[in-house]
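Morning F.,

Quick status update on the modeling queue. The single chain you submitted on Monday has been processed. Sequence for confirmation:
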Amino acid sequence: MEITFSGTGKFKGVATTVTVTYWSIIRSDGVLSGEGKGMVMSRDGQEMATFTGQGIGRFVGSVFYHTASAGKVAFLNNLVAVFEHEVDESENVANKFWEWK
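Structure tokens below.
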């Protein structure tokens, strides 16, 4: 299954819009597995970073960021994060990220 979604949030205080396309499958052992690609855009539209990620199970995984920005989102360049992706019964989505150091 392939899904694209967009949402808003903050990365270290920077207001952003995030767009993600990911696919997922149920592996032969019954575990959900997926990969995705997307972009983080500052809400003023002046800066952008891209990312790729992989997840497993109830979607915990890792994300790898890249940007050429020297401004507000420059901190995302080469940043690696671990994440949790949750969807509730009403289809509300919540994502939490932690920088991997």
